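In response to reviewer comment 3 from the previous cycle, which asked for concrete evidence that the modeling workflow produces usable outputs, we include below a single protein chain processed end to end. The sequence was submitted unchanged, and the resulting structure tokens are shown without manual editing.
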Amino acid sequence: MFFISYQGYNPSKEGLPVRKFHVVLIPDEDGGYYVEVIGLPGCVTQGDTIEECLKNAKEAIELHLEGLQDDRPDVNPIFATVEVD
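The workflow returned the following structure tokens.
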């Protein structure tokens, strides 16, 4: 099981693995935001406020990771950050 870190809770202090994901919030022309999770193709969500988007993104990531483990338990994706000048 993986835990997504969020403000006020640090699973690594409890010895639990933490994965951090970048999300992109794209303003919707009808209001609110569309959210894409970088590194997890097909993991998307939406919300009316930034706070709601981040909450929904956390839930979407958790469900997506659970689905990956159920569908392909032998695969453990590796995530990295690349910096470009």
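The CA atoms of residues 45 and 57 lie 6 Å apart. We consider this sufficient to address the reviewer's concern, and the full set will be provided in the supplementary archive.
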